[in-house]
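User: I've been trying to design a sequence by hand for this structure and keep getting stuck. Would you show me what you'd pick, starting by listing the structure so we're on the same page?

Assistant: Good idea, let's start from the same input. This is the structure you sent:
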């Protein structure tokens, strides 16, 4: 039984039953469950399936482009043979390979049911100068699109490849996709449903902590054992001998990008500041050249949901920041990598330490930024157009700096100034909190539109205790609100 993905399942079934040729692209971050979704929705209805060979383990620099292409073609040929094709030699080109696929499908075409073709990790098939896109174009434009019972589903973990080669194709496949589905990581509600389906009994506080370390990636969550606590599971996943996710960061980038070291260097640099870095700051920190290639690399990381780009409130496009948004990467770089701040790799011994408590606060801010829809629903403004941003002000000789965790600027003339607090109990608004809020509101008032009202908004785990300066907050959003199913 698949957890969640109701909209995606319904969409795929509707496409399957549409009675016309369909060309569908499903894409999203690696390990997010794309292949599992297709297998669960269609089960025994797939006529032909093939997955590209991973570049991990292939010495691409020393191997010739031609030999790399031949390995992919030979593997494609083996898929045809294993699934019932007879009497054919391995193809010499992708044009030949897709001609073979046409013949394979024509033998199985009884004109009554769907011919469903599933090409998984399609970006790996597109090796340099192999002519894969030419073959795919010929297959669809010259044969498949004219057969109303054909459905071609392609999956890719490289979102940038899908966008460049299919969604925004300006050649022979321009406008040929009939549907694109971007599969997102689970939100908190879906994580909870996933754990319930596995028989794990976790509190919402524990699920939130798990999300802050792993994100909503089903592949990672599936490793959890119900007999272990969250801390014990994290110890097992990252720090024990043979831990399955100990080297996942390197594997992840190597499988997605042709220049993984550069992409990792960008993520590492951005992770050095919680607010992220401007493009200029990022170039200075990495030493990379400002170029069109660098823009493409940032776009690839952004489309892959590793980083986000946002405009610092009040500065517009003049002061855009890039920051790491993927919870797994943030946690890995802080606590697991060889260059992390921890020297002793025993999570159980530090899980309750002050350094982790501080990190929890920062990670919770990121969790909130990834659950804007739930926050808007809790505020009753789901239908209101909004812009979300962070804001920080550098200190001077006369005044210390400040930072606002999240700003929601609304078209109904309200600005929610949000304070994110990850606590194990109700939050208490004391005198220090009161003066900090008053100061931030005063500084924010200098740049918000004069007609706008500022609403101090608390986003916390278990609510606000009605003591002290609790009335400073206009709205309080709790962990339960963040678990909404919107």
């Amino acid at each position: 039984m698949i957890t969640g993905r109701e909209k995606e399942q319904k969409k795929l079934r509707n496409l399957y039953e549409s009675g016309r040729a369909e060309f569908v692209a499903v894409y999203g971050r690696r390990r997010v469950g794309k292949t599992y979704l297709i297998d669960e929705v269609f089960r025994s209805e797939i006529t032909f399936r093939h997955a590209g060979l991973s570049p991990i383990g292939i010495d691409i620099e020393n191997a010739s482009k031609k030999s790399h292409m031949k390995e992919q073609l030979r593997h494609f040929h083996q898929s045809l043979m294993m699934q019932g094709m007879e009497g054919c030699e391995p193809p010499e080109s992708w044009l030949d390979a897709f001609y073979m696929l046409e013949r394979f499908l024509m033998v199985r075409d009884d004109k009554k049911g769907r011919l469903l073709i599933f090409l998984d990790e399609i970006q790996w098939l597109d090796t340099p100068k192999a002519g894969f896109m030419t073959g795919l174009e010929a297959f669809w434009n010259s044969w498949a699109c004219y057969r109303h019972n054909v459905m071609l589903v392609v999956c890719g973990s490289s979102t940038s490849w899908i966008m460049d080669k299919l969604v925004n194709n300006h050649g022979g496949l321009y406008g040929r996709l009939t549907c694109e589905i971007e599969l997102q990581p689970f939100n908190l509600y879906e994580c909870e449903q996933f754990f319930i389906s596995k028989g794990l009994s976790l509190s919402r506080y524990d699920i939130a902590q798990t999300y802050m370390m792993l994100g909503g990636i089903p592949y990672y969550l599936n490793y959890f054992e119900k007999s272990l606590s969250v801390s014990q599971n994290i110890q097992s996943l990252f720090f024990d001998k043979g831990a399955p996710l100990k080297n996942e960061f390197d594997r992840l980038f190597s499988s997605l990008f042709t220049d993984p070291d550069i992409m990792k260097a960008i993520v590492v640099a951005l992770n050095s500041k919680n607010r992220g870095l401007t493009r200029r700051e990022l170039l200075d920190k990495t030493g990379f050249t400002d170029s069109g290639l660098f823009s493409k690399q940032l776009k690839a990381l952004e489309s892959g949901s590793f980083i986000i780009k946002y405009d610092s409130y009040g500065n517009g496009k003049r002061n855009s920041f890039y920051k790491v948004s993927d919870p797994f990467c943030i946690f890995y770089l802080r606590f697991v990598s060889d260059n992390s701040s921890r020297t002793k790799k025993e999570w159980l011994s530090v899980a309750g330490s002050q350094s982790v408590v501080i990190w929890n606060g920062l990670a919770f801010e990121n969790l909130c930024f990834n659950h804007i829809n739930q926050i808007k629903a809790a505020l009753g403004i789901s239908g209101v157009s909004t812009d979300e941003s962070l804001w920080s002000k550098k200190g001077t000789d006369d005044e210390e700096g400040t930072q606002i965790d999240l700003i929601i600027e609304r078209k109904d003339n309200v600005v929610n100034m949000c304070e994110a607090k990850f606590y194990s109990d109700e939050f208490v608004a004391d005198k220090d909190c009161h003066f900090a809020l008053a100061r931030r509101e005063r500084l924010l008032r200098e740049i918000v539109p004069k007609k706008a009202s500022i609403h101090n908004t608390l986003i916390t785990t278990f609510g606000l205790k009605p003591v002290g300066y609790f009335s400073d907050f206009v709205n309080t959003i709790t962990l339960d609100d963040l678990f909404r199913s919107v």
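That's my pick for every position. To get oriented when you compare it with your attempt: DSSP finds 20 helices and 13 strands in the chain. The longest strand covers residues 402-410.
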